[in-house]
């Protein structure tokens, strides 16, 4: 399991984006970022705090760019 | 401590917002008909664009579940819904195990947060927690329609891993409803089944999270997982 966690974190490329072998797509957000944060809160913070911190930090990186991908109209 | 409020919103985001009401198929959608979900009393101080609050997400979950459960008359009934021709699968007219499992696990994304707050929730005359526990036990019945075989060795990747990842998330959110009531024999059998997929092959992509959620759930409860 630790191997899977490490490999998932290795797919992080910076500025909030994960590479989903090989695409940069919506899965970066709704899978890596969401599952990463969810796992961190459910299990990581208690059992694997270093990995949880990494997922949390990667999530925080989103705020500099992700909101600007979307228009006020939702497009 | 689990910050359940965040988990609740996240869980709902996982759900495909497919309209599953029992209304006529040709119902007009341009204007929201009476009985179709609407956001009442939006709070734009909380959500500047949508006005959605946590209560609205709960209302939306209950609305969709009410649609889903109108196809359930007894505990044995799987979560199967009317088809959209050319869109829905399976297209050969027969049902299959994966479809049943998806129906179970995806609707449970909506039910688990609600059961966390109301373990005795009843929809359409069905005790929701009891329904899902019954369906989970059916996964272990080799003579039933929900039966899932253990991952064979060396095995192939399959959608079952995805659904078990989803199931593990819901079990993690509301273990007091979706895990603790089982007797030890059922717990051990469910663990062996799900861990066989958690330890099985995956795709070198976001799919790894499905293994991670299955293995984390059972590791925390004392089961042996493939931990180096």
How would you explain this protein's 3D organization?
The complex is a heterodimer of chains A (75) and B (228). Chain A is mainly alpha-helical and 75 residues long. Chain A has a domain at 40-75. Chain A is 56% helix and 7% strand. Chain A contains three helices and two strands. Chain A has a two-stranded antiparallel ribbon with strand order 1-2. Chain A is globular, with a radius of gyration of 13 Å. The relative contact order of chain A is 0.16. The model of chain A has no long low-confidence stretch (mean pLDDT 91). Chain B has a two-stranded antiparallel sheet. Chain B has helices at 4-13, 54-69, 97-117, 128-138, 159-173, 175-178, 184-198, 208-220, and strands at residues 122-123, 126-127. The longest helix of chain B has 21 residues, at 97-117. The two termini of chain B are 27 Å apart. In chain B, 33% of the residues are buried. In chain B, a hairpin with a 2-residue loop joins strand 1 and strand 2. Chain B is built from eight helices and two strands; from the N terminus they run αααββααααα. With 228 residues, chain B is mostly helical. Chain B has one domain (4-220). The A-B interface holds A 1-5, 7-8, 18, 20-21, 27, 30-32, 34-39, 41-43, 47, 72 and B 2-3, 6-7, 10, 13-14, 49, 169, 172-173, 198, 202-206, 208-209, 211-213, 215-216, 219-220, 225-228. Chain A: InterPro entries: DUF2264_N.
